[in-house]
Design a protein that fits this description.
The protein is mostly beta strands. Helices cover about 0% and strands about 45% of the residues. It contains one helix and 34 strands.
């Protein structure tokens, strides 16, 4: 298998030769069989997979879009966007490959070796009922593609594009999201540099100050004090949304890939990085307890919940797409990596916690049990308790407002189950074993 970076194939690159025996001289003979051994059974988009979820064909099922840095070809990378249609159900997604050149972008953009690392994001930015697309690239630029709404295709069609007046330096990773909740889609954009010209960089914020039908994006990225000083004793400024700066200490780069998602009416921010870590933040908006109104936090650093959301680092250049894939009301993650592959993490495999509550202080006993057990909370619990099988099927859901609860699921099969404890501030998961 060729494995040289920037010098060899990065797709269909595991070669299988069959041993056909020996010749008359006693030499072992091998015949070439295929160049995609094992690879053909998985998703592989060359280098630097960028997953995105979006219902592109209006069937109420989120499809999987995977962009890439490119497929290596004669010294160059040919960047493309692959589409995997969701042909399953809301609770059981099945992704079927459709194309590796979505909307014929290679023809529309006239892609050259100078345009790589496509990173799309989707949304109806002109209120015409059609899904539009913005693409970031390795040059730090953004391209707007307006959907012409053709009735001849189940998929968005784009005839032309507009180069936006936005430049974040290099490797722009945009996401369209109404971050300030004013009804207009804003842009949150990651970039390559983490430290540049004495400034900490990380995540850019371009607020939509236009109208529902005519978007206009203006740089609202805050500048915050870092508490660090340069050799001249000048304080280094953080120019980044939420004061996020996650630069590699050696190369000074970060390759941030932000993903805003909402859970229990609150925004969270996950940030993929060059080192493979996925950072998770909250405190993205201030909530008025009296009116429940929210205000975007542009004045202080976001709260870092964890710098390793998936509890493992086995790749570099991580990028995540987050949605509820199996309809269990929990956020699931698909992570792309530098090798061009993607991995699925169901919510049972990680915790989103916004406080320092120790999981060990929530007692479940006995465990193992026969389906009858107690849960003891170290605080007056007011929220939802849900039990899932290890396949993600919901077994029980009930509201609890107490410090102690007796659970009876003695009618279910033996096996491992996940107890998910939720409030507006917490998601805590614990595993139990039922033997009955």
């Amino acid at each position: 298998s060729p494995n040289g970076v920037n010098v060899s194939e990065n797709h269909k690159n595991i070669l299988l030769y069959q041993n056909t025996g020996t010749n008359e001289d006693g030499e072992t003979q091998f015949n070439f069989v295929e160049n995609d051994f094992l690879v053909k059974t998985m998703i592989d988009v060359g280098s630097n997979a960028t997953p995105i979820f979006q219902d592109l064909n209006n069937d109420d099922l989120e499809d999987l879009i995977i962009a890439n840095k490119g497929y290596f070809d004669n010294g160059n990378y040919n960047s493309k966007i692959s589409i995997f249609e969701n042909i399953g159900t809301i609770g059981n997604p099945i992704f079927n490959f459709v194309t590796d050149d979505f909307a014929n972008l290679s023809d529309i953009l006239g892609l050259s070796p100078s345009i790589q690392a496509l990173h799309p994001t989707f949304g109806d930015i002109n209120n015409d009922g059609n899904i539009d697309m913005i693409i970031g690239d390795n040059n730090g630029e953004l391209y707007l593609f307006e959907n012409d709404g053709s009735i001849l295709s189940d998929w968005p069609t784009f005839l032309d594009y507009e180069l936006l007046n936005i430049d974040v330096g290099s490797f722009a990773t945009p996401q369209l999201v109404d971050l300030n909740r004013d009804g207009l889609l804003d842009l949150v954009i990651g970039e390559r540099m983490g430290i540049d010209n004495g400034t900490y960089n990380g995540v850019n914020y371009y607020q939509n100050i236009g109208s529902v039908t005519n978007p206009q994006f203006e740089d609202y990225t805050p500048e915050l004090p870092s508490g660090d000083f340069d050799n001249n004793q000048n304080e280094i400024i953080i120019k980044s949304l939420g004061g996020i700066h996650v630069a590699d200490p050696i190369y000074l780069t970060a390759y941030t890939a932000p993903q805003i998602f909402e859970l229990d009416d609150q925004y969270y921010l996950a940030v993929g990085t060059e080192q493979g870590k996925i950072y998770l933040y909250n405190n993205i908006e201030f909530i008025d307890n009296n009116s429940s109104n929210t205000t975007l936090n542009l004045e202080s650093e976001f709260n870092l919940i964890t710098d390793n959301l998936l509890n493992e680092i086995n790749c570099i250049h991580s990028k995540v797409a987050i949605t509820d894939l199996n309809n269990d009301e929990l956020p699931d993650i698909i992570r792309g990596n530098a090798s061009g592959g993607v991995e699925l993490f169901l919510a049972n495999n990680f915790n989103v916690s916004t406080s320092n509550i120790d999981l060990e202080n929530i007692k479940i006993f006995p465990n193992p049990n026969n389906g009858m057990f107690s849960i003891q909370f170290p605080f007056n619990y007011n929220g939802t308790l849900t039990i899932y099988s290890n396949l993600g099927h919901k077994v029980l859901k009930k509201n609890i407002t107490s410090t102690h609860e007796i659970i009876d699921v003695s009618n279910i099969k033996s096996g491992f189950y996940i107890i998910s404890i939720r409030t507006k501030q917490h998601i805590l998961n614990k595993k139990i074993l039922i033997n009955n």
